[in-house]
Amino acid sequence: MIATSTNLNKYISNKLKFRHKKFALIIGASPSFGARSPVLWNKVYKRQKIKCEMYPADVQENNLKNLVNLLKNDNRFLGGSVTIPYKEKIIKYLDSVDTNSKKINAINTIIKSNKKLFGINTDYLAFSQSLKKFKLKNKDSILFLGAGGAGKAGIISILKNYKKNKKFFFNRKKQKLKKIFKKNKEKNIKIINNYKQLKKIKNISLLINATSVGFDSWIKKKGGYINLKYFSPLSSISKISTVEKKDEKLFVKKNIKLINKNITESFNFFKRNPKSSVFDVIYLPNKTILIELAGNYQSVTLNGLDMNLNQAVIAFSKVNRFGLIKKIEKIMKK
Fold it and tell me: Quick one: pLDDT at residue 4?
């Protein structure tokens, strides 16, 4: 954890046991609890004998601006990745972002050049590549859940690549969707207003989850911690209870009624939509509750590992000015 704005050098030198003249970071609330980018990037660095290393940086929101300013002036910093929940919040502290990122209003990659930090979004291209695996036809309908950082990238990808398909969009905060569609006026779009309407949807060909519901990570909330890996995004979890410590047994015990209700209502979705394939952008765990439920109907499923790999390859290439895309992909795949 980078606790204050003045101890970046100490953090790198002592806590991270800094070994090289250059470094990259993945910045987020808790990337040290499962982020794959350091593993992927560091494998390429090692294989290509590049004297650099990527580290996870768990940063509190009130230190985000200070960290960005420090990184601008640290000649060792090359750039890196940005993960939840800062893909949108970090933009105001950067020097500029690319056109695609402006549409999405979120970035996931930082490039350093002459003490300036530039933000780009590699999720869009990675999302588009993953969607090709479902081979959708124009008659197929799509249900898209989420409108956060990765969600916005996915929405823009859907709007651009599947103009003729009927598309349903749902996000807990409806205004986020309205803001996106105000800028991108498209046909064949319907915004779902609430979970009650979500329960009535039928004949979905592809369900895409771009929310964090299902992700195996402890999230700090007022009153304690929660973990979303026990839930599906197809049912409300607004009444979730926190625990004071990261205790899975206690968390499940306190939320068992909500978990059962959530799974039952999610299972009913697949009863209504038995031919629905599932693309869940979550990669931890490999099989989320959503994918497990879809598996009961032998649905085609894809988790976020494929997309995560694609965006990591693109991001590494951009940050490190390393043009051999196929070589990066081959090393990371292993």
Answer: 42
Structure tokens, 248: 């899975």
116 pLDDT above the threshold of 70:
yes
Residue at 1 is within a domain: no
pLDDT digits (tens, 9 = 90+) for 27-38: 999 898 888 899
Q: How far is CA 70 from CA 103, 223, 224, 244, in A?
A: 28, 32, 31, 33
Q: Are residues 37 and 74 in the same domain?
A: yes
Q: Which of 108, 12, 112, 2 is nearest to 65 (CA)?
A: 2
Q: Does the structure show a pLDDT above 70 at 11?
A: no
Strand partners, 280: 209
Q: State which residues form the domain around 75.
A: 8-121+307-333
What is the rounded CA–CA span in Å between residue 266 and residue 288? 12
Whole-angstrom distance, CA of residue 61 vs CA of residue 260: 33
Contact indicator for 221, 241 with CB cutoff of 8 Å: no
> CA-CA distance, 290 to 140, in Å (whole number)?
20
Cα gap 161→334, rounded to integer Å: 30
What does pLDDT average to over the chain? 89
Select which of 22, 87, 179, 275 is catalytic: 87
Distance CA 48, CA 62 (A): 37
Q: Would you call 87 a catalytic residue per the annotation?
A: yes
